User: Fold this.
Amino acid sequence: MKTNSWILLHFCVFILLQITCSQDPLTWKNIDCGTEAPRVGPNFLTWEMDHDFTPSGINKRLPENQPLDEMTTLRFFPNRMDQNCYTIPAYKQNLQYIIRAGFYYGNYDGLSKPPTFDLYLDGQKWSTVSTSTIGGPIYVEAIHWTHGSGSIGLCLIQTRNGEVPFISSLEAMPLWTHLYLQMETNSTFTLLNRTNLGGNEIRYTGLLSDEKYNRIWTSGSIPPNCKKVSTLPDSTTPTLQNDPPKLVLQDSITSNTSDPIILTVDSPLNWTSQTAYLVLYFTETATRPTIDDTRIMDIEIDGRMMYTVGTEINQCKVVTLYPVPLVGPTTNIKLAPSRLSTLPPIITAIEAFTRVNIDVHNDPPPPSSAASGDNSTSGAWKRFCVPYIVFIYISSAIFMF
Ligand SMILES: *[C@@H]1O[C@H](CO)[C@@H](O)[C@H](O)[C@H]1NC(C)=O
Ligand SMILES: *[C@@H]1O[C@H](CO)[C@@H](O)[C@H](O)[C@H]1NC(C)=O
Ligand SMILES: *[C@@H]1O[C@H](CO)[C@@H](O)[C@H](O)[C@H]1NC(C)=O
Ligand SMILES: *[C@@H]1O[C@H](CO)[C@@H](O)[C@H](O)[C@H]1NC(C)=O
Ligand SMILES: *[C@@H]1O[C@H](CO)[C@@H](O)[C@H](O)[C@H]1NC(C)=O
Assistant:
């Protein structure tokens, strides 16, 4: 009896340590801009203060607390002459990162005049941010490769008189599992859309989270000719392309009739990129009306036939389309039943990115100086964890016999 509970205890410790130690979140940087104290969020992520990462700007707290704590404070940059940049430490290796900057104006200056300004990522024009007095936080996110420089530079550049740049949050997640395999390592891809069709918004929720990379899957509205259906997450493929969370895969939309499903993806204002990277996720319902039914879809982008995909029960299909030429500010994705299909089209989730133009060189900001590598304790702890588990395991075994 005593031995049994001893084994059980050690087994629990073992599992707990394994869960804790195998998590990537220990290597993420979550920066709450403008805050006066570090804090641990509801999903156990640690949000750091930002003063170590930028030499300029002024902290500000919004008059009202926001649902997401990191949006309650911000840092604004009234002086155009300053280097209004952040230097985020990164691992000194060739590594793919998710970089996400968050902006919530909240009328912090009492002027009801939300600014528009530019963002530069590692010296390259990344995006124009147009903030608003309506709606929630705005996020600008990219898949970006660091090339061993040991840091990532983000600069905020004023482009209009009297419109002062600000930032509310800044996050950097190294992808220890290489995702989005067709993206070239010498390019940066800005996220346009990541939508969980038929389901709720999915975010990282803590150690056992289904979303392991801190991506945000927003909840999509259901087109009028469609309805929500439950679908079965994949149980056969060990790792699906881009590792979508199971919670995203368990709901989909299907059209009521044999009409096509039409999805639209908007590009930001004045977007100049010519090339998109689209990922479509397809999961099938648990059962089909009859055993002979088939669901085969033709995928058309802006009227051009791109791909044909057939779904299978208990299997998730991931279709990556790249490079896709962008012809206008709105991209239309049409899923039409193919001639041989007996069932209407279905879709589970979409992701859309655009490749950041490499040749845009309109007055880039001065490169950031205070670059430093990351010798973070969290990385060290991760390396320490595995031997520690082995040690506990072996020592308990020795103790018992
Ligand atoms: C990026 O790499 C691809 C091949 O992987 C190459 O064709 C392309 O010219 C490169 N682009 C730049 C800007 O270096
Ligand atoms: C499709 O089905 C949903 C749910 O059954 C319904 O709300 C919607 O009105 C239908 N749309 C059309 C065009 O029939
Ligand atoms: C993202 O895609 C969904 C599905 O097509 C659409 O409802 C939503 O409006 C899109 N968002 C943007 C910003 O394009
Ligand atoms: C887009 O470009 C036009 C003309 O170049 C300019 O007037 C407008 O302010 C720009 N919009 C944004 C959001 O930058
Ligand atoms: C990190 O550690 C390595 C080896 O311990 C050292 O060579 C390097 O200078 C350190 N980097 C920083 C930024 O402290």
Helices lie at 2-21, 246-249, 377-400. The pocket of 2-acetamido-2-deoxy-beta-D-glucopyranose (ligand 1) is lined by residues 184, 186, 358 (CB under 6 Å).
